[in-house]
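Researcher: Re-running this chain for the archive, since the previous output was lost when a drive failed. Same request as before.
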Amino acid sequence: MPDATRPRRPRHPHRPSRLRRLLGLATDNWPARGYLVVFGASVPVMFLAPDSPVAMLPLLLTEPLSLAGMVLPVGPGSVEDAGGPALVAASVAMGGWLLVCAVVNAAVVGALAHHVRDTRAAGHA
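Model: Regenerated structure tokens:
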């Protein structure tokens, strides 16, 4: 039974959540989608040719946020001697962090594309 003395927060059914807005910015225009496609295509290269300079492409594409992962003790290099399960867990954590960084960067690219489009439309009006 809800407490009658506590005020309820008003719900805004027409306003999407922050995560939905972030994903919307990351996928609703061509520059943001193109960024995600290039990032997605670079991930298999990282596994197919780990010793080549191209293997760093996903990390470079997700800068500057991915550089924050350098200070965290998570990643395949931090548990190199630990073996199987620790290496898999560290790789999954690093992959998840790169995915979050890619979505945030795609949202930034999408927001910039919206800003440019709106500025051009205001200039022509």
